[in-house]
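Design job #97: recover the sequence.
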């Protein structure tokens, strides 16, 4: 029988085991907890299915399902996971359970109060996303060397914007900065060439999961 839904409940789009496809943890077997809902509508979003639906689960139910995979690394993602009230408690309890936890967040919501044991992967939305005005720049004050900044680049305009932010806000001095191309819209080799030409202090990345499995929802 499913436990009653209370204040600590979450709406979960899916929980699955795969390889981490992005960030400095790329390639590691990881359990993904994808929460439902997102206040943003990025033009290149590849998880539109997570905007709605899902199943109601209590924190103990989520923790038990994650533990059943027997994997140390866990990534809480979305949608926008921080849009759900119970997300911070979930992150805390996953860390308490001994998991190495990362959080993938849009950067539009406040990351203050997220458990310091959690590696926060914070997006900065470039103009091509259509959500550039939603960037919460105050979040940069809370980042440490254990966190990461991700910028998805659609075209040269986005790249030049990213380059300015990296220089003016000294992002590479805060934490690792990841640049990746919008799949199917910007050739990876083009972005790589720009980074090399400018000696940009970032890590180029591709979405490993898409290279391996295309647009399949989970593996």
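Job complete. Output follows.
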């Amino acid at each position: 029988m499913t436990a009653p839904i209370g204040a600590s409940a979450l709406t979960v789009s899916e929980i699955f085991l795969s390889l981490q496809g992005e960030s400095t943890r790329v390639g590691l077997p990881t359990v993904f907890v994808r929460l439902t809902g997102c206040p943003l509508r990025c033009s290149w979003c590849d998880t539109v299915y997570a905007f709605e639906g899902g199943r109601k689960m209590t924190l103990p139910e989520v923790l038990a399902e994650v533990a059943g995979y027997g994997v140390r690394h866990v990534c809480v993602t979305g949608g926008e996971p921080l849009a759900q009230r119970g997300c911070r408690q979930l992150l805390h309890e996953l860390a308490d359970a001994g998991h190495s936890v990362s959080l993938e967040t849009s950067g539009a919501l406040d990351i203050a109060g997220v458990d310091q044991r959690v590696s926060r992967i914070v997006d900065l939305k470039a103009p091509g996303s259509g959500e550039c005005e939603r960037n919460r720049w105050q979040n940069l004050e809370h980042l440490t060397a254990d966190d990461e900044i991700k910028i998805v680049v659609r075209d040269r305009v986005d790249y030049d914007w990213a380059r300015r932010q990296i220089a003016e806000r000294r992002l590479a001095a805060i934490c690792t900065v990841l640049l990746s191309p919008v799949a199917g819209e910007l050739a990876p080799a083009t972005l790589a060439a720009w980074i090399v030409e400018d000696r940009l202090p970032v890590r180029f990345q591709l979405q490993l999961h898409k290279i391996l499995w295309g647009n399949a929802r989970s593996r």
